[in-house]
Task: structure prediction
Amino acid sequence: MTTLASATELLVTVAEPTRLRILNCLAAAPLFVSDLQDVLALPQPTVSRHLTVLKKAELVRDTSVAPFVLYRLCRDPGPQGRLVKAILESLGSETEFRRERSLALERSRKRGASEVKR
Amino acid sequence: MTTLASATELLVTVAEPTRLRILNCLAAAPLFVSDLQDVLALPQPTVSRHLTVLKKAELVRDTSVAPFVLYRLCRDPGPQGRLVKAILESLGSETEFRRERSLALERSRKRGASEVKR
DNA sequence: TAGTCATATTCGCCGCGACGAATATGGCCG
DNA sequence: CGGCCATATTCGTCGCGGCGAATATGACTA
Result:
């Protein structure tokens, strides 16, 4: 459900500052909840709540790995997909977003290609 | 002021359903407040309030004509501009947005090229 | 200058959604 | 099976933002 019917819903979902930061990080690399928690310096329930919203909106997928849950962007095509892409690209012009993105990337690398499974 | 510093602010501004509808209409043609009022079937104060927000965000310009005020999109370049463009383009895939857009265009034509001044 | 038309603004209310704290779930390992 | 780890969920609260109704502004005309 909630296949993100309209562009309005997409925008409302994405316009939340914290959710946008999360998406920005996931655009750099797939991440665990704990990674996002650290990179964004947010309490864990906050991260989980927003991830749930993003998942319902089909902007994000999760795959459970051990006691962790790995989140990644959905690469969905269609008109919405292009919009999401445009939004994420536009974040590249802001220092703070670039900074968090590289923190995220670093995070994902630090743990090596070991858990980069399914 | 409020030169719409960040992409976050832009998204928050645009994610409001009524404001998005207004932008959608203005993407079709410059319009008077009363036009928007009719096309979108909204009370006048509502339209004015949202236009004020859009103006502060520099998404919209207004030029006073007689006892009317003509609103039109800002054609701003830069990274933000491309994002706005992408958003407006994405609306083309939804029937309701296309419908209102053509109503707006029709409106603007009906009054002829007479008041299409500055 | 009084009246009128289009638009702008104020005020008070209400609802949605984000948050913090606490708690629940659920899988592994000893 | 008990405990622990990462994550999910609930609950109550609170603030932001949109709305309707009423009113203000401001320009033009007679």
Remarks:
- Residues 16, 18, 43, 45-46, 49-50, 64, 66-67 of chain A lie near DNA strand C (CB under 10 Å from a C1').
- The two ends of chain A are 24 Å apart (CA to CA).
- The longest strand of chain A covers residues 60-65.
- Helices of chain A lie at 7-14, 17-26, 33-40, 44-56, 78-90, 95-110.
